[in-house]
Amino acid sequence: MAITYNEQERSFTLSNGRIQYVMKLFHDGYLGHMYFGKALKHFNIDRAFYQTEREGAPNPEALADARTFSLDALPQEYGLYGSGDYRIPALTAVLSNGTSTLDLRYQSHEIFKGKKGIAGLPAAFVNKEDEADTLEITLKEVGGELEVVLSYTIFNDVDVIVRSARIKNVGAGTVYLTKAASVSLDLPTAELDRVQLWGKHAFERQIDRTPLHPGIEIAASSRGATSHQHQNFLALCAHNADEFQGEVYACGLVWSGNFEAATEVDSFGNTRMVMGINDFDFKWELKAGDSFNTPEAVLVYTADGFNAMSQQFHAFVQNHLVRSKFRNELRPVLVNSWEAAYMDFTEDSIVDFAKDAVKLGAELIVLDDGWFGVRDKDNCSLGDWTIINKKKLPNDIKGLADRIHGLGCKFGLWVEPEMVSPDSELFRAHPDWALGVPNHKRYQQRNQYVLDLSRQDVRDYVVDSICKVLGSADIDYVKWDMNRNLTDIGSAAFPASQQQEIATRFVFGVYDIMERITQAFPNILFESCAGGGRRFDLGLIYYMPQVWTSDDTDEVIRQRIQYGTSLVFPPITMGCHVSACPNHQVGRTTPMLSRFVCAMSGNFGYEMSLGKLSPEEQEEVKGHIALYKELRSTIQLGKFYRLMSPFEGTQNETAWQFVSQDGSEVIFMYFKNLCLPQGNIRKVCLTGLDPDATYKVSKHMWTPSLAVNALDYLTNYNLEGDVFGGDELMHFGVNMDKVDRDFAAHLLVFKRQ
Ligand code: GLA
After folding, report:
1. pLDDT at residue 715, rounded to an integer
2. Over residues 596-609, mean pLDDT
3. How does residue 714 score in pLDDT terms, banded at 50, 70 and 90?
4. What is the DSSP annotation of 617-676?
């Protein structure tokens, strides 16, 4: 049994043999947090919490040990405000009498096999009941109005604990929740680094690592989506942790809206981490009998560094979060029309575009934005999904889809269902369907408003119109976009007392329409997108198994974006495309091979007109697509390891590696962006291999030399046919030749002998 309750100790232990999580009840039911870490054979719970008097820390009345027991010092599971704990609370509320002091006590608990879902929210699942065990602990607020059920699931196949809370009004009056976090985790040390992912449009998920400081530090979004700016992920790690060793405690939220990821180092050298829906502008009305479910938090612990952390997240995402039938299916090589044509296309031009791509091996052609209403620019027609632009597509979507299928290729379409253009039939008919606030003129972003998805009628319209389009032709793939942040957050359908629910209800609405549309079309491969990676989160991945990682397709910036994204998400989920040069985002020109090696490190495709390339370049692309198809089962379904970080060092280098599920194939990629004179011969060590096996190089490709006085040494460097020991590759490494051009890349494929 992975979860036990020890009656004598009044303790709960969750363990899968590798990780362990321990809680204990104190006095009349305070729920303390005793341990989260490596599974232990010996653990004396009486020594876990060193009780001592703390000046300035309030004590409960009438306890024998009153002066040494304070909620301000007790490590807790779900901290509260008003009863002596001054650290960041997990839950705050205004009770029906207007006060906000909360104090929870244990009532009961239940342990069961498997895991429940959460109505209306994406949530981790088990494929078979024996994959996980769940503990639900019910706590009651001493004033009698609130009941809180804390839920914990531990998985057998991954070192993950999933937590959430359900808060119910069990009184007679109305209560307002002003904060309801998904997780609060107290760690008995402050000697930790805080690792977070920050960014901006076209520059998402950059890694930031700093030591924790005394006091509160927060990464958050109030943009209505997870955001380009901050990922709802946080890791705390030992100062000496790196990719290969050291303790890491990480947390991600199964949520796609406003969030807050906070840490607090208290004055006694402890750390509290709290994550959940952002309490900024959040107030949730709970009438008698109502409940509120928080999104789930995914906790990972490892003693083996960040690669190990990521592999736990990757396996968890693939096995317990991605629900699509495509989750373990190889993904097609995709060619998207956006950067090739933007909104300037016709049925014929897209068919020509497709013919050129199919000739080179493309398997899926995607028509991006611009096919509906009168949309030639981004200033109109969002919402008018059933009005096909006949000037561009005289034979509707079906006419185009049939012709693309006729080329022996799949067909995909772009949509942006959550939005409405001010200049659209939809907005003219229903001006109250956009989020808006009385007496305020709405703000636009990219010339568009956000639909009020808190409303059932709006959601029904969206589901109905999108389903009509998807049912009108043979569509194999959908790119679901979301191109702005929320402003003017108000709904004409809700009373004043519920307006601060709307940002959260919007996300519930997104989940509702995604649920209905993806269920109605289970055979469509959905890719989510939000101006690139604004909403690459553990919430949407439940509905859509892949994500357009970023609008930036420059190989150099992509190394950083893909490296950062891989902290949480497996390569199969990351849309990675080769685009034309000069690059449309940063104007950089990089070699085709280097662009390929970077894009092939994920869910591969092109974002350009392949027909416009020279015949030689087309041959090169043909070879690249064929090679990707050969290698994709290892890339998409194998294990991923980061080897050299683009965020560290002075040499502008990145390296990473894939190992197939059975260990027989190893793919290694190395990038060096800026050439230095008399560059180092860089030795890179691989990892995750069998030390006793030998590995033969079956493929070695590198970016050709550009140096004026280039000798032939690069051609001599070909490692194809060379045999390395697994131990040699892991401990001596492989030499990367002296690179003599900018934006160089090496690709090595090894086969175990
Ligand atoms: C967003 C996406 C792009 C493209 C455009 C279309 O910016 O990230 O890939 O689909 O919208 O308008």
Report:
1. 54
2. 98
3. low
4. HHHHHHHHHHHHHHHHHHHHHSEEEEEE-TTSSSS-EEEEEEE-TTS-EEEEEEEE-S--
C-beta 548 within 6 A of ligand 1 = yes
User: Which of these, 194, 193, 260, lies nearest to 231 by C-alpha position?
Assistant: 260
What's residue 704's pLDDT? 82
Work out the average pLDDT over 220-231. Answer: 98
Comparing 154-158, 624-628, 707-711, which segment has the lowest mean pLDDT? Answer: 707-711
Protein residue whose Cα sits closest to atom 12 of ligand 1:
369
CB neighbours of 380 closer than 8 A, spacing ≥ 6?
373, 374, 421, 423, 424, 447
Catalytic residue flag (residue 344): no
552: annotated active-site residue: no
Q: Identify which of 339, 529, 536, 549 to mutate to test ligand 1's pocket (most ligand atoms within 8 A of the CB).
A: 529
The mean per-residue pLDDT over the stretch 453-479 comes to 98
- Ligand 1 pocket residue status of 529, Cβ below 6 Å: yes
For 411-453, the pLDDT digits (tens) are 999 999 999 999 999 999 999 999 999 999 999 999 999 999 9
Q: Is 532 in the pocket of ligand 1 (CB under 6 A)?
A: yes
Q: Report CA(371)–ligand 1 centroid distance (Å).
A: 13
Q: Which residues contact 330 (CB under 8 A, 6 or more apart)?
A: 632, 633, 636, 637
> Which atom of ligand 1 is nearest to 479's Cα?
10
State the catalytic residue, choosing from 304, 356, 452, 551: 551
Query: Model pTM?
Result: 0.98
The pLDDT of residue 184 is 98
With beta carbons less than 8 A apart as the criterion, state whether 31 and 77 touch: yes
Length of the chain: 753
Atom nearest to 342 CA in ligand 1: 6
- For ligand 1, whether the C-beta of 605 sits within 6 Å is no
* Contact of 543 with 515, CB cutoff 8 Å: yes
Closest C-alpha to 730, from 680, 693, 679: 693
Structure tokens at 296: 């789930």
Closest alpha carbon to 512 in 482, 485, 489, 539? 539
Query: For ligand 1, atom 2, which residue shows the shortest CA distance?
Result: 531
How many angstroms is it from 560 CA to the middle of ligand 1?
20
| Dihedral sign of CA atoms 266, 269, 270, 274 in order | positive
The predicted pLDDT at position 63 comes to 76
Instruction: State the pLDDT at residue 346.
Output: 98
Question: Does the structure show a pLDDT above 70 at 540?
Answer: yes
Our answer on whether the CB atom of 536 is closer than 6 Å to any ligand 1 atom is: no
527 lines ligand 1 (CB under 6 A): no
Across the chain, what does the average pLDDT equal?
A: 96
- CA atoms of 377 and 385, how far apart (whole Å): 15
Percent of the chain with pLDDT over 70: 98
- Give the pLDDT band (50/70/90) at residue 142: very high
Secondary structure (3-state) at 414: strand
| Count of Cβ atoms closer than 10 Å to residue 114 Cβ | 14
Nearest alpha-carbon partner for 543 in 703, 732, 417, 367: 417
The tokens for 4 are 């036990």
Secondary structure E strands in 16-76: 19-26, 30-38
Nearest alpha carbon, ligand 1 atom 6: 369
Give residue for tokens 């990480």: 250
Q: What are phi and psi of 406, to 5 degrees?
A: -60, -20
Q: Which of 266, 369, 481, 537 is catalytic?
A: 481
Please write down the HEC assignment for all residues of 439-458.
CCCCCCECCEEEECCCCHHH
Distance from the Cα of residue 266 to its chain's centroid: 29
- Closest residue by CA, ligand 1 atom 1: 531
Question: Which ranges constitute the DSSP H helices of 491-532?
Answer: 502-520
pLDDT for the residue 127: 97
